From TrEMBL:
Name of the protein in question: Endosome-lysosome associated apoptosis and autophagy regulator family member 2
Keyword Membrane belongs to the record: yes
InterPro entries: Elapor1-like_3rd, Elapor1/2, Elapor1/2_C, Elapor1/2_GBD, Elapor1/2_MRH, Elapor1/2_TNFR-like, Growth_fac_rcpt_cys_sf, Man6P_isomerase_rcpt-bd_dom_sf
Gene designation per UniProt: ELAPOR2
GO cellular component, one term: plasma membrane
Database matches in Pfam families: ELAPOR1_C, GBD_ELAPOR1, GBD_ELAPOR1-like_3rd, MRH_ELAPOR1_9th, TNFR_ELAPOR1_6th
Annotated region (Disordered), positions in chain: 1-27
All copies of domain MRH, residue ranges: 672-877
Membrane topology: Single-pass type I membrane protein
Biological process according to GO: positive regulation of BMP signaling pathway
Length: 1029
């Protein structure tokens, strides 16, 4: 048979069998045997050359012209060994197929399967083998078989590769001993496909310290279906500087391995990438060759399953049997080096100074030392010499709580005593107790509960070095071995407890740790402050990048547990062979921890005494009680005050609650009971927010990162009630994926925060292709209630008028004010929150919560958050001023009075509308009739009187005329009197005689009968001639 190959025949990877069609257990002349030859013929046809009688004769195949591979296993578990020509080889006469080893066969560690004879042979010197496994520990470049796929799961407009900040440049990056993930918010998968002949496993080491990156490892089959959807998909977080391990069982067949990372960048801080190394896959059934040792390692024994690292000042090339020494006088090399490097001249960056412990004379010496291992040369022309050591200086005093007993070291004061560090320890006076804690401000030696170390992710140069060095009035970062070393300082405290007098207090802080520091950097240095609780996991509390002026930072402790506080300093995150930033450093001047369990005392504080006798020992006060100065007895705080968490001596320790708030029974916290009262224009407004006491939620957004990742800000608000308990909870559910060993109800569940107001960042499920929405970056916005008022300012928290729309009514808004005790580098006074409660009858139930339009994230400066909560439940309670009455018509002797609410209605609940009233009444028709009758009678009477007086006037005129005529006729008959004078003896008087006047009824009667009576008066005059009348 003739074969000519012009292209490579691809296998599944180094050290694994090639896959070929199945064949059965049959003799060479069986159909299966013929199929094997047919396969070879097909391969030749694919190469472009079919056997032809006219082709020229080809030379016979030599062993170097072909290699052996196994066919695919059949259902019975058997296979054949076939010869496959190498690429670009033309030859004839390949060996016939022969029966192969069973499919589950594998060699032991340190051996490989020699395909020609199908026997296991030991690996030679300079090589190694895992037997039925493969290992990837060289990451100078991406090994064969691995691939990178970068995707963006959520885009704003158009595909991600069409945007200038797309994910085309995102990938896993080989870094020599490990491979590093992307640092952006792209989704990047490191993929490797392997075909297992039997069940096995995959094992790898990793560093995963930043939960702003989602790291998952999962396996798919050749149908792109996940093999197992267990929680093992999410990789657990590791501590800083520690390598974790992860292993997953593999099934026989094709397994596609995925290491996938997705960055969640919501702030300005850069994320720390995931690091992976030493990937081992077991279950490939056989290894057809041994792997050569990588440069910097060697194997000097046959049958090795690994290679050893070359020691310092030696090197080796690939496949070395031994390491070669460098010229130590002029060259050097680190562990695992592939070459030697020339030693540079010494500079000021190659040494550092330390202070020796105090001697018996109370002196310390300044010593200069070369950075170990020393790699520089002093004999070169421009090299510097080590400065002279031995300069003596006075030792600093002991730290507070310690004393010097005449020796060269400081010792802690015995229990019940105190010292400021310069004097001997003295017992606390009666009625006082030691104020336990630690105050380190003099750094002659490292305190006993502190330790320092150094580590590097990519090498072991600084292992065993001191990461920090004491320097008298401060402690500073050490030299390290590389600029990207992590220089570690640890402080271990077994627990915290409050003073004896405050033992019964609940919910208050147990202690606090404060440190003063500064950083001096010329590059991208970072100082991390981390906390480990009960030796479970280390979490970064705060970090500072670049040069920072001298400042203080405080971290508050709220529960009693074992704490390890860690300060980690890194000059730069880029590894380099030469030292450029050795002068970059951090200095810590003082570290103070209060209420430490095993602490010492620098002073004493007052405590409560038992009531039996004045000299009795200190006793704990009940919750909410302070120590009365005169008697040193416990006394309860007045109502609506809370007890200070820092001191309980004197009545001033009871701090009044804010406006509209009250204290709980233990006087440990102030809160709102959901009721608020306000006087406005002689009107009392009563509010009841009880129906809003359950947690209110707001999800605003969406917002987008620079690469378009969609995310939302989710807020929970616990407004009032619940005896001051913080009911708003925010979680980081990424820990549901990354942390598997969480005990339900554990106090160490640090991924759940409770507060009055808290915030989480939500990445929707469709944003990154996850099955559920992810919640991360949960922070406390408010853990202390300040007060409730209609004023817009309280304790330096101000709500500007233009921050929210103008209210539609004259009902005043009610403002709830909160603050957080946690400080950050951006918010040195902590965060604060203001919630504006607005009456809106159209928003029933829980209503609607919104944020200012100018600050869509709820805050404009990152420190003060504002919310507007509109609801009908925020309206005042109804009073008698909120309704009016309407009187109905009088019907059938009855009248109704109704009561209706004023429109629009700006109140709820409160008093109810009064019941309608029904009263008797006179109808309008009756009074109309009476009025008409009276009016008619009056009109008739007026007409009658008018006629009467007119008739009377006519008669008077007639009689007067007649009288005048009569008088004139008498004067003509008699002569006129000569004189009218009164004679002597006559009286000057006249007699008047009146006629009888008729009554009105008589006049009417006369008028009716038309009588001609003369009703005029007659006047008789007396004269001298008249008879005596």
């Amino acid at each position: 048979m003739l074969f000519r190959s012009r292209g490579p025949v691809r296998g599944r990877g180094r050290g694994r069998p090639a896959e070929a069609p199945r064949r059965g257990r049959s003799p060479p002349w069986s159909p299966a045997w013929i199929c094997c030859w047919a396969l070879a013929g097909c391969q030749a046809a694919w190469a472009g050359d079919l056997p032809s009688a006219s082709s020229r004769p080809l030379p016979p195949c030599q062993e170097k012209d072909y290699h052996f591979e196994y066919t695919e296993c059949d259902s019975s578990g058997s296979r054949w060994r076939v010869a496959i020509p190498n690429s670009a080889v033309d030859c004839s006469g390949l060996p016939d197929p022969v029966r192969g080893k069973e499919c589950t066969f594998s060699c032991a560690s340190g051996e490989y399967l020699e395909m020609k004879n199908q026997v296991c042979s030991k690996c030679g010197e300079g090589t190694y083998s895992l037997g039925s496994g493969i290992k990837f520990d060289e990451w100078d470049e991406l090994p064969a078989g691995f691939s990178n796929i970068a995707t963006f799961m959520d885009t704003v407009v158009g595909p991600s590769d069409s945007r200038p900040d797309g994910c085309n440049n995102s990938s896993w990056i080989p870094r020599g001993n490990y491979i590093e993930s992307n640092r952006d918010d792209c989704t990047v998968s490191l993929i490797y496909a392997v075909h297992l002949k039997k069940s096995g496993y995959v094992f790898f080491e990793y560093q995963y310290v930043d939960n702003n990156i989602f790291f998952e490892f999962f396996i798919q089959n050749d149908q792109c279906q996940e093999m197992d959807t267990t929680t093992d998909k999410w990789v657990k977080l590791t501590d800083n500087g520690e390598w974790g391990s992860h292993s997953v069982m593999l099934k026989s067949g094709t397994n596609i391995l995925y290491w996938r990372t997705t960055g969640i960048l919501m702030g300005s801080k850069a994320v720390k990438p995931v690091l992976v190394k030493n990937i081992t896959i077991e279950g490939v059934a056989y290894t057809s060759e041994c792997f050569p040792c990588k440069p910097g390692t060697f194997s000097n024994k046959p049958g090795s399953f690994n290679c050893q690292v070359c020691p310092r000042n030696t090197y080796s090339e690939k496949g070395a049997k031994e390491c070669i020494r460098c010229k130590e006088d002029s060259q050097f090399s680190e562990e695992g080096s592939s070459e030697c490097t020339e030693r540079p001249p010494c500079t000021t960056k190659d040494y550092f100074q330390i202070h020796t412990p105090c001697d018996e004379e109370g002196k310390t010496q300044i010593m200069y030392k070369w950075i170990e291992p020393k790699i520089c040369r002093e004999d070169l022309t421009d090299a510097i010499r080590l400065p002279p050591s031995g300069e003596k200086k006075d030792c600093p005093p002991c730290n507070p709580g310690f004393y010097n007993n005449g020796s060269s070291s400081c010792h802690p004061c015995p229990p019940g005593t105190f010292s400021d560090g310069t004097k001997d320890c003295r017992p606390c006076p009666a009625g006082t107790e030691p104020a336990l804690g630690f105050e380190y401000k003099w750094w002659n030696v490292l305190p006993g509960n502190m330790k320092t170390s150094c580590f590097n992710v990519g090498n072991s140069k600084c292992d065993g070095m001191n990461g920090w060095e004491v320097a008298g009035d401060h402690i500073q970062s050490g030299a390290g071995g590389s600029d990207n070393d992590y220089l570690i300082l640890n402080l271990h405290i077994p627990g915290f407890k409050p003073p004896t007098s405050m033992t019964g207090a609940m919910g208050s802080e147990l202690g606090r740790i404060t440190f003063v520091f500064e950083t001096l950097c010329s590059a991208d240095c970072v100082l991390y402050f981390m906390v480990d609780i009960n030796r479970k996991s280390t979490n970064v509390v705060e970090s500072w990048g670049g040069t920072k002026e001298k400042q203080a930072y405080t971290h508050i402790i709220f529960k009693n547990a074992t704490f390890t506080f860690t300060w980690a300093f890194q000059r730069t995150n880029q590894g380099q062979d030469n030292r450029r930033f050795i002068n970059d450093m951090v200095k810590i001047y003082s570290i103070t921890a209060t209420n430490a369990v095993d602490g010492v005392a620098s002073s004493c504080r007052a405590c409560a005494l038992g009531s039996e006798q004045s000299g009795s020992s200190c006793v704990p006060c009940p919750p909410g009680h302070y120590i009365e100065k005169e008697t040193n007895q416990c006394k309860e705080c007045p109502p609506d005050t809370y007890l200070s968490i820092h001191q309980v001596y004197g009545k001033e320790a009871c701090i009044p609650c804010g406006p509209g708030s009250k204290s709980n029974q233990d006087h440990s916290v102030c809160y709102s009971d959901c009721f608020f009262y306000h006087e406005k224009e002689n009107q009392s407004l009563h509010y009841d927010f009880s129906n809003l006491s359950s947690v209110g939620s707001l999800m605003n957004g969406p917002s987008f990162t620079s690469k378009g990742t969609k995310y939302f800000h989710f807020f929970n608000i616990s407004l009032c009630g619940h005896e001051g308990k913080k009911m708003a909870l925010c979680t980081n559910n990424i820990t549901d994926f990354t942390v598997k060993e969480i005990v339900a109800g554990s106090d160490d569940y640090t991924n759940l925060v409770g507060a009055f107001v808290c915030q989480s960042t939500i990445i929707p499920s469709e944003s990154k292709g996850f099955r559920a929405a992810l919640s991360s970056q949960s922070i406390i916005l408010a853990d202390t209630f300040l007060g409730v008022t209609v004023e817009t300012t309280l304790q330096n928290i101000n709500i500007k008028e233009d921050m929210f729309p103008v209210p539609p009514s004259q009902i005043p808004d009610v403002h709830f004010f909160y603050k957080s005790s946690t400080t950050t580098t951006s918010c040195i006074n902590g965060r604060s929150t203001a919630v504006k409660m607005r009456c809106n009858p159209t928003k029933s139930g829980a209503g609607v919560i919104s944020v200012p339009s100018k600050c869509p994230a709820g805050t404009c400066d990152g420190c003060t958050f504002y919310f507007l909560w509109e609801s009908a439940e925020a309206c005042p309670l109804c009073t008698e001023h909120d309704f009016h009455e309407i009187e109905g018509a009088c019907k059938r002797g009855f009248q109704e009075t109704l009561y209706v609410w004023n429109e629009p209605k700006w109140c709820i609940k409160g008093i109810s509308l009064p019941e309608k009233k029904l009263a008797t009444c006179e109808t309008v028709d009756f009074w109309l009739k009476v009025g008409a009758g009276v009016g008619a009678f009056t009109a008739v009477l007026l007409v009658a009187l008018t006629c009467y007086f007119w008739k009377k006037n006519q008669k008077l005129e007639y009689k007067y005329s007649k009288l005048v005529m009569t008088t004139n006729s008498k004067e003509c008959e008699l002569p006129a009197a000569d004189s009218c004078a009164i004679m002597e003896g006559e009286d000057n008087e006249e007699e008047v005689v009146y006629s009888n006047k008729q009554s009105l009824l008589g006049k009417l009667k006369s008028l009716a009968t038309k009588e001609k009576e003369d009703h005029f008066e007659s006047v008789q005059l007396k004269t001298s001639r008249s008879p005596n009348i």
